[in-house]
Predict the structure.
Amino acid sequence: MENSVEIAMPKEKRSFEYNHPLDYLFYARNVTIVGATPKPNFGVGMFMSAFRHSHYAANGSPIYLVNPKYADLKEIKGFPIYASISDIPDELDYVICAIKAKFVPDLIRECVAKKAKYICVFTSGFGELLSTEGRHAEQEIRDIIKRSETRVIGPNCLGALCTKAGVTFNPTFDKNPGNIAFASQSGGIATTLVEIQKQYSLYYSKGLSFGNQIDLNCLEMLEYYGQDPDSDVIGMYLESTGTADGNTFFKAMRNITKKKPVVIWKGGQTDIGARAAASHTGAMAGSFKIWKTFVTQAGGTFVTTSREFWSTLQLLSRIVPNQRLPQGNKMGIIVAGGGASVEMTDTFSNLGFDIPEFSSEIQTEIQEVFPDVNTSVRNPVDTGATGFLIDTILKSLKIMDKTNLDILIFYSPMNWLTQIERQGVPGQTLSVARSLGRLNTKLTKVFTIICPIFEMSEFNAKKSIEFKQILWEHNIAHFETILEAGNALKHAIHYSQYLQNPS
């Protein structure tokens, strides 16, 4: 165990013990941004903006800027600026490189001499060029850091995110600590994961955009996240395993999936997609079928689209900590509207779910909640117009929970949920969310909600975000579409079956 150092967290200050080398990246004691300028700039300006909006500096952790052109200014936007790395009077944990590719090797030499721990090379112009020059440039970086204490992230990436510490690459990141750890070869996908947080209730413990993976790679991140107590679910967007050995990566996954789920989204699934991956990160993508087979055999969850990735991560992040994985595929559905109930039944049935008819006793019990006209209680439960009253939904779900079902689904678009509030009952929508949250603590089945926005308005959009935030706080997963819910639930069932009989 290495030295214990005081670092500030968002709501409290606690002693943090650096037990793993990567702790010095995610809980960096200082951050240095190289290439800083007082002028608006997409690249380096993005990092400066991110840390200005973060709680990292507010907690007292130093941020240093480097650019010899502006060193005479002494500071930019409140951060001290130096002419070079060697001028900074501190041991450096995390350096962000936002300078031209031709200057990167010299900077890395300075970092090695300074014994900086991590350098994120945001700069592009390396292996992704698919040129001899690009490959030689990456090899030069490897040669420089060989046998040194300095590790390289990238090139062509955004670097690290740690919600607790305030380390970030995006000014819009949500400061609510979550339990999802992600890693992405694509900077764009890493950015999207941050920007959709509130809409999809994706809250992170840690994240990393690591681009071309010429040094720090997916195997190291998988193993780190696997032992991280703040991370219950791991999600990775990969186009290749980079410098990691593929067999070793999948062996590590087999061990980790016995403790926590690993969701893999493989980029470059077709010949054309593989070509795009090569020009994106220089990745030699490998066989899609082999990837899918290896991930599945290792107990991982294999997804193929962004929405499937988001929805699966969200669902697992809500049900894994509470050990409420679905034990089977028997589903109960409650919805206001015959047409919606038919669509849900068709979609879930086509995905392989069983929607059994309730026993006569259960049907009788549920029917007492609703009028006899314009309702159906066989499963799906079509509530008719009375489904707009939350008490009828709560009572019905309690009854359905007593059956041999594995999953309970409540379908209600946001404009249905907000209807009573729009008619003059302030706070009703969020009251519904809290009522569902309280119920979820008593249910024994996996409970999820499908709540799309059909009637788009400023009011509905605002209430949707607030509604979803309360659901997240009460460990209820929510989905935009029936298909997203079905695919995510299928993955949860497969993972549950794997845990019951890991190979």
Q: What stands out?
A: Residues 482-500 form the longest helix (19 residues).
